[in-house]
Write a structure and sequence with these properties.
Elements (H helix, E strand, L loop, with lengths): L1 H9 L2 H22 L6 H15 L4 H12 L2 H7 L1 H6 L1 H6 L1 H25 L4 H7 L6 H11 L3 H25 L5 H21 L3 H29 L1
Helix pairs in contact: 2-3, 2-4, 8-9, 8-12, 8-13, 10-11, 10-13, 11-12, 12-13
């Protein structure tokens, strides 16, 4: 009876929603205190949840009964990034032509830099195509992957990994190459590391966050347009 009761509790969607939010809140608090890039809350929260799932022998399907409630808010959370963009709209307008050119080039580089190494290493075609939209936000990436024949589940994993690595390595790399302008910094983070990168850019300031939000939007549109063309040529 006790085991059955525990299993029934483990199947409750609310339990996994609560644990996910709690893990993220605690991880974020630790990150804000230590400011160590490797301790990004997405990394710590994910690792903690994986450990719990393994220790309790809980399947991914069971977890996602509650995880879908969080996934539902992924789209609105991306749209919410338009708020800092709106607050800094005039600054963005003055750089509109440059921003369009840069994001178009960045989108192409994001696709090619993922597809070519995978092809050279002999990765299966579904993996190669799943890597192509890795630098855009998850809803767009999954749609693009499905359209070009990639594996959506792999794409979602690649997107999260890209965002986390971008948030950790991006600021250091941009400093090393001398990028100091807030718009350039935010645009690079949003274009290369989507939502997680934009959240990191917001830590530097509202203008950086606004540019990051714009980078997500433009890079998403550009990638949806050019990914089928580039993957077709490369394959």
């Amino acid at each position: 009876m006790r085991l059955e009761a525990l299993e029934s509790i483990g199947a409750l969607p609310l339990l996994w929603v609560t644990l996910s939010l709690l893990a993220y809140a605690l991880s974020r608090r630790l990150y804000l205190r230590l400011r160590v890039a490797a301790l990004h809350p997405v990394i710590l929260a994910s690792a903690a949840l994986i450990a719990v799932l393994r220790l309790t022998d809980t399947t991914y399907e069971t977890y996602m009964q509650g995880g879908r409630l969080i996934e539902f808010f992924l789209g609105p959370s991306v749209v919410a990034l338009a708020v800092p963009l709106y607050l800094n709209l005039q600054e963005m307008k003055s750089s509109a032509p440059s921003l369009l050119v840069v994001t178009a080039f960045g989108s192409a580089v994001g696709v090619v830099s993922a597809v070519v190494p995978a092809l050279l290493m002999g990765a299966p075609e579904p993996v190669v195509l799943g890597l192509a939209p890795k630098s855009v936000t998850t809803p767009i990436a999954i749609s693009v992957a499905e359209g070009i024949g990639g594996e959506p589940a792999l794409t979602a994993s690649f997107v999260v990994l890209t965002g986390v690595l971008g948030a950790i390595i991006g600021p250091l790399l941009l400093r090393l190459v001398g990028v100091r302008h807030p718009v350039a910094f935010g645009l690079a983070m949003g274009s290369a590391a989507h939502g997680i990168g934009t959240a990191r850019a917001l830590e530097n300031g509202r203008l950086e966050g606004a540019a990051g939000g714009l980078g997500i939007c433009l890079c998403g549109v550009m990638t949806a347009l050019i990914a089928p063309l580039l993957t077709g040529l490369l394959l």
